[in-house]
Amino acid sequence: MNAPDRFELFVLPDGAKKVTMVRDTKIPNASMFTILKEDHTIGNLIRMQLIADQDIIFAGYRMPHPLEHNVNIRIQTNNNTNPLECVQKSMECLSREFTSLENSFIEQVQKKRNVADQYI
């Protein structure tokens, strides 16, 4: 078959950067971030987190082609900040949310195990 190997969907080629940023020359305070080997899951998470930021004027993402697992995220900010700072702030916030979710999940699993152990 002509299908690519599955590992090609998530393994970065040698020397490739996971994230690149290109400033938009036509729109002030705008940049395009390209994230390699990711899909709609990451694109939508980042976009939704960026939209929650008061300094963001526009945040959107797209996948250039369905067979390429790359996400382009376009961001425009107001004059109070720049796109890179907003992305960094959003990533930190998402990281805290994921840590909280993981801790909550582990706590609930332990509670469930303790209840199950009572009946054994």
How does this model look, in words?
With 120 residues, the chain is α+β, with helices and mostly antiparallel strands. The chain has a single domain (6-118), classed as Gyrase A, domain 2, CATH 3.30.1360.10. Helices cover 40% and strands 22% of the residues. The chain contains 2 helices and 4 strands, in the order ββαββα. The chain has a 4-stranded antiparallel sheet with strand order 1-2-4-3. Strand 1 (19-23) and strand 2 form a beta hairpin. Helix 1 (40-51) crosses helix 2. The model has no long low-confidence stretch (mean pLDDT 91).
Task: Kindly report the spatial arrangement of strands forming the biggest sheet.
Answer: 1-2-4-3
State the order of secondary-structure elements, H for helix, E for strand.
EEHEEH
Strand portion, in percent? 15-25%
CATH architecture: 2-Layer Sandwich
CATH class: Alpha Beta
> From the helix content, strand content and strand pairing, which structural class follows?
alpha+beta
Distance between the ends: 51 Å
What summary fits the major beta sheet?
Answer: 4 strands, antiparallel
Instruction: Please compute the radius of gyration using only Cα atoms.
Output: 19 Å
What is the number of domains? 1
